Amino acid sequence: MPQLTGSRVDIDSIRSQALSCTRCRLSESRTQVVWAGGNLDSDVVFIGEAPGFHEDQQGEPFVGASGQLLDRLLAEVSLDRSSVAIVNVVKCRPPGNRNPLPDEIEACRPYLEAQLEHMQPDVIVTLGNFATQFMIGQPIGITKARGQTFRFRGAIVVPTFHPAAALRGGSDNGVTRLDAIRQDLHKARAIVEEARSRRVQSPAGTAAPDQLGLF
What we know:
By secondary structure, the protein is of the alpha/beta class. The chain has helices at residues 11-19, 53-58, 65-76, 102-119, 129-136, 142-145, 163-167, 177-201; strands spanning 37-38, 44-48, 85-88, 123-127, 150-152, 155-160, 171-172, 175-176. It has a single domain (11-203), classed as 3-Layer(aba) Sandwich (Uracil-DNA Glycosylase, subunit E). The protein contains eight helices and eight strands, in the order αββααβαβααββαββα. A hairpin with a 2-residue loop joins β5 and β6.
């Protein structure tokens, strides 16, 4: 398994490990490992829960109805799959699209951590409960977490609803889940743009999140 250090990891080697992984029971029922979508050299990453049926068939995250909605919402803030990374907490589909179990999440943890170590993103957008709890290390529900921002190493974490929740409808605190995602994506885009601007202005070419003036 990958050993994380302060420097960038060999992401191609880790991807090869993931594609043949048998560390948990999900390997017994998957069609294929769903490693990542978009651009793993981006400064913004979206993290979902786990592959579904269509993702398991195609080997690409967020390609079903939730993915189509995510694509439309990304376009509204002038982003697309080529400009962001899209990954999941676990890389194999749980049978029947059930929730991933704690030991499955732990078995897959080094792969997601390696992806994040490789990317060193400015912004991490977590989609739903499992991704949010993974990134902030607290058993907090997405309804309570969204609207806040958190830090993970050098990144700012922006929690929002999973697109599947928006497809089911409903609202929280008088705001539809669809509009809530829109608000959070605009926030994420603003943070990314400010981080990029600070890097351009910095003589060292970098800007620490603590210097972004966001809190």
